[in-house]
Amino acid sequence: MKKRIILFMVILNLAVLAIFTTVSFMLANFEYNRITKSTLPFSVMQELIMSMIPFIIILIILLIIISLIFSSVFTKKLVKYFESFAKSLRETIRDKDKSLKTGEYYEEFYLIIQDFKELSEELSNNINQIKNEKQKIEDIISNMKEGILFVDNNFIILLKNEIVAEMLSFPTGATDNNFLMLCRNIELQDAVKGEMQNETETIVNYVTNDKVYMAFISYVKSGGVVLLINDVTELMRLEGVKRELFENVTHELKTPLTSIRGFSELIAEDMVKDKADIKKYSKLILDESNRLIYLINDILMLSDFENAKTIHDTSEISLRAEFEKELAILENQIKEKNLSVEIVGDARVEASEDLISIVIQNIFDNAVKYNVQDGSIKIEIERFTETGKTRFAVSDTGIGIEEKDQEKVFERFYRVDKSRSKKAGGTGLGLAIVKHAVSNLDGTISIKSAPDEGTAITVTL
Fold first, then answer.
1. What's the CA gap between 341 and 376, in Å, rounded?
2. d(CA 343, CA 378)
3. CA distance 242 to 93
4. Averaged over 209-221, what is the pLDDT?
5. Please, what is the angle between helix 353-369 and helix 319-329, to 10°?
6. What's the CA gap between 66 and 74, in Å, rounded?
7. Counting CB atoms within 10 angstroms of each CB, which of 43, 109, 169, 324 has the fewest?
8. Nearest-5° angle of CA 261, CA 267, CA 271?
9. CB–CB of 460/452 below 8 Å?
10. How many Å apart are CA 73 and CA 1, to the nearest integer?
């Protein structure tokens, strides 16, 4: 560009110089003739000069036209270049994958073009960084299990994740962004309004869709309120279970301790003098002490299962051999009730012997305890080669369980017939322990029963 401008200026200057040189030469010639008393009249010289004026004017006009054409062409080309450069700059800002196109730039604009290029790259990097940070924040918010919502001072929702709509029971397909219009919970509305005025932190517990939620409401200094909502349904359920367990444990421990204390006071105060009575009460104290020990051991065992504190070694076990072992232990009780026991089949499993023993002991023990006189027990063991699973079922002809109680028998301290269970010496934790032991063995347990017809418990490993 610089060379073109210099060339144009040289031509223009030469043309102007030629005009002025011609005129000057003519004037100088005229002055010379006048001084030397030339016979050429002044009027003739004047006419000669006047005759050259149109030529000079035409020459100047031509020079102006040429300069205008040159300027127009150059200006259009320059404007077109900067329009192309501006378009490339906008595309680079919008799309990080595109680079700034400078094309064939003019030397005079080199520094400006370079500054624009560096500025474009820096701006593009900053925009990409902001986009990445925004995407990270959106990914974090969308994957949060907690609901998050931000409203401004006009109660307009500026930010929320998907789960918060369910937690706040927003109407399906609602397009309104006003929190007060979408949220139907008056307590939450009042809490958010109060937060706008008091600028303090508030915690609100509320129930919706059979779930319990805890909302933490905080004021933001820049203006607005943030709600962080947690689903505490399971936490509240566990709190209830923990409270119920504590009450049950307290009751179960209190019963044998009260008996032990009462019998001990009778003996200590010499209120029982007969040796036979002393022996009788001592036996009762021993029985209640054993019951207390069994109860404590069962509670500790159940706690270990729930907390997964114990790591069990595995080995190959014969299920039939384990049942036969338990059969030998309960031989006296089986004879007392004149029960017939049948074991069908056998299978070997790779599992923890301790866990298998706990499962078989509790199930078989219940089949004996709650069976009727002259009843029967049938144990069926089967291996499914196509699935690799093993199943054993223990069926008895005992008192049976009503359908409404069948799911509850696996709960802690649940007894279908409390008086009969107490007489049989049960703690109410046996099947709860079995359920956790089977779960640790990656198995399943099911029950099928009917009152006065008996019970069948099936375990699949």
1. 6
2. 6
3. 59
4. 86
5. 50
6. 12
7. 43
8. 115
9. no
10. 12
The structure tokens listed for 434 are 């079995």
CA distance 16 to 59: 9
Please give the Cα distance from 129 to 213 (Å, whole number). 36
Distance linking the first and last C-alpha atoms of the chain: 88
Q: What is the rounded CA–CA span in Å between residue 97 and residue 115? A: 20
Q: pTM score, two decimals? A: 0.49
pLDDT of residue 378: 92
Average of per-residue pLDDT values in the chain: 77
Tell me which residue range forms the domain holding 79: 1-143
Give residue-wise pLDDT tens across range 141-184: 777 788 888 888 888 888 888 888 888 888 876 667 888 888 88
The string of pLDDT tens digits covering residues 293-324 is 877 777 777 777 666 656 667 888 899 998 88
Reported residue count of the chain is 461
Contact indicator for 188, 164 with CB cutoff of 8 Å: no
Kindly report, residue by residue over 46-66, the tens digit of the pLDDT: 666 677 677 777 777 777 787
Residue 389 in tokens: 């699973």
Q: Kindly report the CATH number assigned to the domain that includes residue 430.
A: 3.30.565.10
Kindly state the helix (H) or strand (E) to which residue 305 belongs, with its residue range. helix 275-307
Question: What 3-state class would DSSP assign to 205?
Answer: strand
325 and 418 both lie in a single domain: yes
Same domain, residue pair 33 and 99: yes
How many Å apart are CA 306 and CA 41, to the nearest integer? 134
Please check whether residues 75 and 6 belong to one and the same domain.
yes
Instruction: Give the sheet arrangement for strand 147-151, strand by strand.
Output: 157-160, 147-151, 225-231, 211-219, 202-208
Residues 6+ apart with CB under 8 A from 17: none
Rounded distance, CA 339 to CA 336, Å?
8
DSSP characters for 47-93? HHHHHHHHHHHHHHHHHHHHHHHHHHHHHHHHHHHHHHHHHHHHHHH
Q: Which two tokens stand for residue 301?
A: 């065992």
What whole-number distance in Å separates Cα of residue 380 and Cα of residue 344? Answer: 5
To the nearest 10°, the Cα dihedral for 438, 439, 444, 445? 50
Which tens digits make up the pLDDT trace of 90-115?
A: 666 666 555 555 555 555 566 666 77
Domain boundary, last residue among 231, 249, 284? 231
